[in-house]
Amino acid sequence: MKVIDLNCDLGEGMSNDELIMPHISSCNIACGGHAGDADSIKSSLQLAQKFNVRAGAHPSFEDRENFGRLKLDWSRARFRESVTRQLQLFTTTAADLQMKWHHIKMHGALYHATAHEESFAQWTVEWLQEFYPDKAIYSLPKSLLHEKCKEAGQPFIAEVFVDRAYLKNGSLVPRSQQEAVHETTEQALHQLISMAHHNQVTTLDGANLLLIADTYCIHGDNVELVKQLPVLVKQLHQNQIQVAKYKA
């Protein structure tokens, strides 16, 4: 049986956290940038406690209108100020609940900027080393951020996406393109099985891409797929893949 960590972005106003949480093993909670506030963070953290799910912070560009999916022209100072403030909201709420938290995962355009762009990747590692040297960051394997974290000794968890199509260079198909998002159980199941058992994915342009992952992500705003999450997890088990629940 292959044991995996299945994570999901939550606390984003989709009203489906309670349906998702029993079926995943870690979650990334929006902390005020693209979505979320103190109340939603508290609610998501309490659900994570209830279902023994590892909780992490999910900061982003502060752009609610575009759900954090457009890159903003931030300076180093603006980046540090914003992500620090978002993490303070998250960590304060977790402390109020006397709850340990596990990791950090950037959201949307900030996720891709920190993974691939020299400036954002460097700023991220510097910020992590200063404030959260013991916390892992979820990001793309073989990315610039991955390399910089290895060099700095910063904990890193390689993440792949169950419900997103890939290009042969290892990047995700932009959401502006058709077929960027897998919305059916069949698509997601096929991709996850290939990733978990064979460390590879068939890209949109027909290549076989090697991807070695520590965690597998399903997006909480992928409404159609989330509805079928219990079915997906059951089918995973039938294919010798088990979601590993956290044991406190």
Topology readout:
Layout: E1 2-4, E2 6-10, H1 17-20, E3 26-30, H2 38-50, E4 54-58, H3 76-96, E5 103-105, H4 108-116, H5 118-131, E6 136-139, H6 144-152, E7 156-161, H7 185-198, E8 200-202, E9 208-210, E10 215-219, H8 223-227, H9 229-238, E11 241-243
Parallel strand pairs: 1-11, 2-3, 2-10, 3-4, 4-5, 5-6, 6-7, 7-10
Antiparallel strand pairs: 8-9
Helix pairs in contact: 2-3, 4-5, 5-6, 7-9
Written account of the structure:
The chain is α/β, with parallel strands linked by helices and 248 residues long. The protein has one domain: Glycoside hydrolase/deacetylase (TIM Barrel). 40% of the residues lie in helices and 18% in strands. It has helices spanning 17-20, 38-50, 76-96, 108-116, 118-131, 144-152, 185-198, 223-227, 229-238, and strands at residues 2-4, 6-10, 26-30, 54-58, 103-105, 136-139, 156-161, 200-202, 208-210, 215-219, 241-243. The protein has a seven-stranded parallel barrel. A two-stranded parallel ribbon has the order 1-11. α4 (108-116) packs across α5 and α7 (185-198) packs parallel to α9. It is globular, with a radius of gyration of 17 Å.
Strands, count: 11
Strand arrangement, major sheet = 2-3-4-5-6-7-10
> Any idea what the shape is?
globular
Rg, Å, rounded: 17 Å
**H and E string:** EEHEHEHEHHEHEHEEEHHE
What's the CATH class label? Alpha Beta
Task: Name the CATH superfamily assignment.
Answer: Glycoside hydrolase/deacetylase
What class would the helix/strand composition place it in? alpha/beta
**pLDDT averaged residue by residue:** 95
Low-confidence stretches: none
Number of helices: 9
Count of folded domains = 1
CATH architecture level-2 label: Alpha-Beta Barrel
Distance between the termini: 22 Å
Portion in beta strands: 15-25%
Q: Biggest sheet: strands, sense, closure?
A: 7 strands, parallel, barrel
Provide the helix percentage: 25-40%
